[in-house]
Amino acid sequence: MADLGKKYCVNCLADVTNLRLRCTDCPDIELCPECFSAGAEIGNHRRWHGYQQVDGGRFSLWGPEAEGGWTSREEQSLLDAIEQYGFGNWVHRCLTYFFYL
Question: Is the pTM of this model over 0.90?
């Protein structure tokens, strides 16, 4: 029997409580990173659908061995800054962006 409060990948049944990718087109599709990367398709769900990362931004991108590593929320902030200001001019633009987060 499944533990209450735990989430599982609908494709492989792996525990995805800490990190999962939710389809924005299919209400009940949540995948583990491995099944998402493999392009899993289930029922009417297709790999080209939109996705939302669900982890609260606490998932460490580099694993527990990376002390002081970036969380996924910090990585998304960096990507947003690059998209908004371009790659470069870190001293002024990017520091200003992170200061006001």
Answer: no
Exposed e or buried b for every residue in 33-45, given b needs 16+ CB within 10 A?
Answer: eebbeeebeeeeb
Closest by CA position to 60, among listed 32, 19, 9: 19
Secondary structure element (H or E) that encloses residue 23, with its range:
strand 20-23
Distances (CA, A) of 77 to 1, 42, 47, 73, 74: 38, 31, 25, 6, 5
The alpha carbons of the chain give a radius of gyration, in whole angstroms, of 17
The pair of structure tokens assigned to 62 is 């580099």
Reading the chain (101 residues) residue by residue, the pLDDT tens digits are: 556 778 899 999 998 887 889 999 998 999 998 999 999 999 999 999 999 888 755 666 666 555 666 777 777 788 888 888 777 665 555 555 555 55
